[in-house]
Amino acid sequence: MTDSLNKVLRIGQLYDFYNALLTDKQQQCLNMHYLQDFSLAEIAEEFGVSRQAVHDILRRAELMLEEYEEKLGLVSRYRKERLIIDEIYKMVSNFPEPARKLPEINLVLEKLQYLLDDAREV
């Protein structure tokens, strides 16, 4: 992946976790630029400001998202927990056949699958 794509993915994930902590304008600008692929000029026109103003808003918002992650670590924790859940799911699903017939094991697998499916939406 290119650095540009990595940045878009990183900002997108940080936005998913921390957007409520940003101002409305920061949320709108990040959403339009990173999620809807608006150019700086298009966003500037939408808000009636200069491209430089949009650039400044985006830059400050990006820095704030990174600071929130540095302090709270929700994205990092989410990734680690997701890996652990995936490992547990694989371990349990590889239990020998008699164990996998137990209703409790099937219930565990269903709940783990729910967590994995739910995590993909974030």
UniProtKB/TrEMBL annotation:
An MF annotation (GO) of this entry: DNA binding
Q: Which SUPFAM superfamilies match?
A: Sigma3 and sigma4 domains of RNA polymerase sigma factors
Q: Which UniProt keywords apply?
A: DNA-binding
Domain of life here? Answer: Bacteria
Role noted for this protein: Might take part in the signal recognition particle (SRP) pathway. This is inferred from the conservation of its genetic proximity to ftsY/ffh. May be a regulatory protein.
What the record says about family reads:
Belongs to the UPF0122 family.
Q: NCBIfam families attached here?
A: YlxM (NF045758)
Identify this protein by name: UPF0122 protein MAMMFC1_03930
Q: What is the lineage of its organism?
A: Bacteria, Bacillati, Bacillota, Negativicutes, Selenomonadales
